[in-house]
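Side project, low priority. Logging it here so it doesn't get lost.
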Amino acid sequence: MNEFFKNATQIKVEGATLPFYKFSEGGVEYIGFDSRKCVPPEPMVNALVALNLIADSKAKVMMINHHYPVALIPKIEHSYDITHEKLQGEEVKVIISLKEGASAQTLDTNVKCGG
């Protein structure tokens, strides 16, 4: 099991292409996944799938990725707060949560790679 999700429960999520995990920390429910070994657009697709599971500010998404997801941010920054922590090399841990006053929404997961 991944070091970031060692105390988490693996969950089945429709539309996900990676294992997803759920855990609680400090009164917050996290949905997480590790997309470091994926190629675009798979990390973005999984992030959008995870965000579709967030109903309120008591839940957050934890994305472990091979670099900061610059293509994802413009698609979500109007409704979500994004923080990140550098890990090893270019790898990052990204935490995404619903902005205060924003409503949960269904995000389109049909993402194509622009390359």
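Brief comment: The helical segments are 42-51, 73-76.
Revisit when time allows.
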